[in-house]
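Render this sequence as a predicted structure.
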Amino acid sequence: MTPAEIQARILYRDALMLVIDKPAGLPVHAGPGGGPNLERDFEHLRFGLPKPPALAHRLDRDTSGCLALGRQHKGLSRLGKLFQEGQIGKTYWAVTNAAPPAESGTISAALKKLSTRAGGWRMVVVDAGEKDAQKAVTDYKVLGSGGGYWWLELSPKTGRTHQIRVHLAHLGCPILGEPQYIPPGSPRPSAKLHLHSRSLFVPLYPRKDPIQVSAPPPPHMIPALTACGYVTS
């Protein structure tokens, strides 16, 4: 992205933190093979500081929305501690094309990373007592439905890799556009992944109110969200 393009994605900025609206389809950092990534454009977000900001957490390549960056060592350290202690509230929106079993609930299913025959990996639901199992908890509620879609708000209480994607597939309502956590033999989806980091609630300063930041849903999610009752502001 050009300096103007990435700067236009800033949702919040202060001395310690930036929150940007990450586009879907772009990895946050370079993988083993290199290629385009969001991190290489952080140089355009220095705003007078000697170093560019750094990632305080991660979003999947195909997930859009709120992404927090630490602007200097103090900000990055404080954000890292808050994320580690679970003090940062994270809200996601997802669209599924199958109904969850209830209008709201909590998904508590431990996850584990497994290697695949093709040399990759995937997350799987396992018994909580299994070796290397990681506790994973996600609250959800249905915000609307229509046109064969369901609009869900999700609040992960833990921060496991692919947590929301695996939990919704485990619940029987995989995310629209989900390419990996679908039954074997299913056709590859034609839609993009409909998962969006809607908002962050960050108690960054002890003597100030928590910072609340929201990101608008990306264009590819608007048609399905609209069918579910979402109204653009």
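Summary. The first helix runs from residue 3 to 7. Residues 5 and 44 are 10 Å apart (CA to CA).
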